[in-house]
Structures are given as C-alpha cells and as structure tokens.
C-alpha cells in the first residue's frame, strides 16, 4: 500500500500538523491502495503563508518565464503519462483504455490551451478611447478545490491558468481520489515551480475546504463539485468578499428530433451518458425524444444499453468500470428504486450489480422510459450510468422541457436540419450546447447557467478568471 501522508508546502514534502490517516480505496476491488492524511486549518495556514510569501516574487515574473515553466510541465506530463494512467485507475476505477485516451490527456490539453492563451494575452492595452492604460494583474493567492470524477482534468484546468496569470495557490484535491494530484505535485516540483507558488494539502470539506474558502489571506476560490457544496463554499467565502468561481452539477438535456440519424444518435446518447460510468457533470442524462420516433428510439436505447460492457478497470477495452465508492453506489441504487416506484418504465438495467461483478462498486447500465420531467429521476443529478427518456411533441415543447431544470451546464441537440440545430441551441439555457455529437477543443469556455455555477474555465476564458483588471489614467 502506498504511503502518501505528506503534503506539498513551500516546495517540500512535509508531515501534517496532526496525523489523521485515511485509506484510498480502489473501487474495483474495495481494497485500500494508499493511505493519506487529512489536513486541518493549521496545515492550511502554513500553505497560505507560503503562497502569500511567494506571490510578491511570482506575480512579477515575465510572460516568458511563465511560458517556459508551462512548457517544462507539459514535457514532464507527457513523460509520466503512464504513471498518471495508473493513478487514476487505482483511485477512481477508470478503465486503462479510458484513462489513457480520455482522463490523462486532459492535463496536457489544458496546459497547452493555457500556454497558447498566455502567449496571446495582452496584459497591458489601451482603453477603447485611448485615454487610459488597462492592465491585467494576477488576483493573488488562490484556493483550488477539485473533485474525484475527472481528477487531473479539473486540477490542470485550475492550476494551469493560475500559474499563467502569476498567481500562487493551494490545491485541495478530493480526498477520495488524491493520487493523481500528488503525482501532479511531483511533476510541478520536477519542472522547477518556485517554492510556495504551488501547494497541496489533502483533506475533506469540513477540515480543509472550509478553511480555504473562509481564509482571509486567500483572494479567490475556484471550486468544482456538487451544487450543495458550492453553496457552502460561497457562504464561507462571503465574509471576506473573495472571488468565487464555481463549476457545479448538471442534468443535461439531449434533444433528439425525428429527422436525425436515429441509430447513430442513440448510440452517441448511450455512450455519452454512460461514459466514465455516468460520473460526468455534463453527461446527457435526459434524452428528450420526438413523439413520432419515441418507440423506435426506446427500443434502440434498450439494445445499446444492453450491449454496454462493464468490467475490470485493469483490463484494456471500451467497457466502463465501477463508480467511485460504496456511498455513491448506494445513492445510485436509491435513485433507481425510486424511479421504479414512481412509475417510470425500466427498459434496461435496474437495481443491483452486473452478473459476475459481485466485488467492486459496479452499477448496471440503466435506462428508464416514460419519464415525466417532474419526476425526481428527471430533476436530480444521479451521477451514475442511468439515462431517462422523455417524449416531446414539438420543437417548442422540447425547449421548454430542456430548460425546466435548476441546472444549466450543458445541452445536446441531434437533428438533420442545421437551421433547426442553431435555432434551438440559441434558446437553450446552458453554458455549452453540443450539436450532433460534436466535441469542443480545450480552448472553448466551460461553465454553467443557473445552479450549475458561474465563471468559465479553459483557455483564454480560464486565464481571465484569475486576473484582476486595473485602469491607469493620467
């Protein structure tokens, strides 16, 4: 079992102020693979002091210096990618192929997009009428709180722009999946990141998350996680009026019109919903289907779900793995049971584990039909491989159902009519809209409307989140 009890503070690996061991569980085996220590407010104080002391120097570095640092980090990330694949597999059960092709490359993707943004950003420019100088400056010391479902993706999406802006930072990764974060700290150390610029303190929300979000010497909190936790972060941050950037939950609609290529559209809908074992905040979990093809699409969805393979993350292949924990498994089972009790029609999957997978937190890929948008199945973020199907009568009806949610992170439109695709996309209240299975690049802004958060990450938009704008006149 790996011993990962130390924190990374002021350029060195240090012991926690007070040891508080927590085992990291491999969700495929239900066995511990590592032990970390949970920090407390004193550990946070040490990290914040280091970051505050380093800010004066690092905030004055040149763009060229920060470009060179990011380039070194990218090179080391590429070399150590196999280690990152393995860390993500062990901590969250991502299958080897998925970790290698989707999870790990996200780090380099964000670093590259941020590097391009840094090179092109005008840190000093004239005001529109030319009478003043507008200057972008780093916001200061930043607290970064990241989730377990796409661990290195969200870490890189925050650390890269913070470094590019000239900020210093304290990272609190999810205590459930901390191994990729600890490896990333090693990468930054090897790249020569100056002492105190990047710090890492493991811990839970009450012990470290609250200490970060309420700390008077932290200027900004960037948080990704549940809407419930995001509310708590905002409340804790309010007394110190720090900037708060939030990327929260979602219940994304996927509108399927009758003029789409139904077979490919349904295959995309199922694979996208179940990808990462359904543990993605922007997953298309509500499939809205035009009434005239509803029965056909239901049959196709049931078949596609039945063909979805679930298996051991240690093996290569296109299968999905377990969900993150026993707690998450039980939560998903409760949603499935409530869906059955509410009268939704089970098309595929259902309660319990897939046959032959009694050990591990595996969930049967599940599809419900005849769901109404008022049902809890359609309103609650389940965060597992569970798809709900809702029929609609017209384009206006589809838009109304799609927007009838407290969330607004992403939306999907599938149609053979390009003009309809653009027309509907403009009316959807979501931060991202994906048409006919298109995938965005790393420089496209990511974030949500309504209770899905505020602010935007990725590329130039992520860089701007970590900058203050100063006007100099006269």
TrEMBL record:
This protein's record includes keyword Mitochondrion: no
Entry keyword annotation includes Oxidoreductase: yes
Domain of life: Bacteria
Active site positions: 247
Limits of the Aldehyde dehydrogenase domain: 13-472
One Pfam family of this chain: Aldedh
Keywords: Oxidoreductase
CDD domains the UniProt entry points to: ALDH_CddD_SSP0762
Membrane-spanning residues: none
PANTHER family: ALDEHYDE DEHYDROGENASE, ALDEHYDE DEHYDROGENASE-RELATED
UniProt family annotation: Belongs to the aldehyde dehydrogenase family.
Protein name per the record: Aldehyde dehydrogenase (NAD+)
Organism: Roseibium denhamense
